[in-house]
Amino acid sequence: QVQLVESGGGLVQPGGSLRLSCAASGFSFSLYAMNWYRQAPGKERELVAVISSDGDSTNYADSVKGRFTISRDNAKSTVYLHMNRLKPEDTAVYYCSRPSTDYDGTFWGQGTQVTVSS
């Protein structure tokens, strides 16, 4: 069974940093691209970052470009989101996801809360 477990969220001051982790199990992690999404209250879920299966290609939402970095460690079946120079508007629940295949749908973690506030 596919399982994604996020961790690393918390309360941080503006300008601070956090690293989110997503531990994956139940599938061949190294064969899949992985995504980070976030959802703030009253807003649509937003795709934040994408990383290719081998980690060689990444893409970011304009709102986080230059501040966030997605990475992965295939040996540990873990994907990370390094968040720097955080802003209050980054406050959201952050979700790790694995894209759908011909055989099953998109999988989501439980989410981890990030709150940026002074």
Structure report:
Strands 2, 4, 5, 6, 9, 10 and 11 form a seven-stranded mixed sheet that branches. The chain is globular, with a radius of gyration of 14 Å. The protein is mostly beta strands and 118 residues long. Strand 7 and strand 8 (78-83) form a beta hairpin. The model has no long low-confidence stretch (mean pLDDT 97). It has strands at residues 3-7, 10-12, 18-25, 34-39, 46-51, 58-60, 68-73, 78-83, 92-98, 107-108, 112-116. Helices cover 0% and strands 48% of the residues.
The overall strand count is 11
Low-confidence stretches: none
Estimated structural class: mainly beta
The helix-strand sequence is EEEEEEEEEEE
Helix content: under 10%
Count helical runs. Answer: 0
Largest sheet descriptor: 7 strands, mixed
Q: How big a fraction of the residues is strand?
A: over 45%
Determine the mean pLDDT: 97
The rounded distance between the terminal residues' Cα atoms is 40 Å
C-alpha Rg, in Å?
14 Å
Please state the overall shape, judged from the principal axes of the Cα atoms. globular
